[in-house]
User: Fold this.
Amino acid sequence: MTAAALTPTSVQKTYKPSTGTVGTPVRLVEYFAVITKATQADWVVGATYFPGTIINCEGYTIDGSSNGAVDPITYATSGDKVVLSSSNVGTEYLRVTCLE
Assistant:
């Protein structure tokens, strides 16, 4: 199967509060997405679902047997792709942190 662009079934946005700062403050926002992953290297378009400057991505896939594994996530500015790199398929839980 060929890798393809995926559409999340759910995306939640949370602003990360700050209690203090030194220097120029930044506004952090965290997105939590649920995605059905079909093949290795499927991706999500960053600007569409995670607007802002992406600074961190973490993913975890739970397969049909309810087994889970960390999915190494990469970000490619070419095509603005958040790539779900592992060969695990199933329900992907993705956390993306951005500067807004």
Observations:
- The two ends are 35 Å apart (CA to CA).
- The chain is about 5% helix and 55% strand.
- The first strand starts at residue 10 and ends at 16.
- The chain has a mean pLDDT of 93.
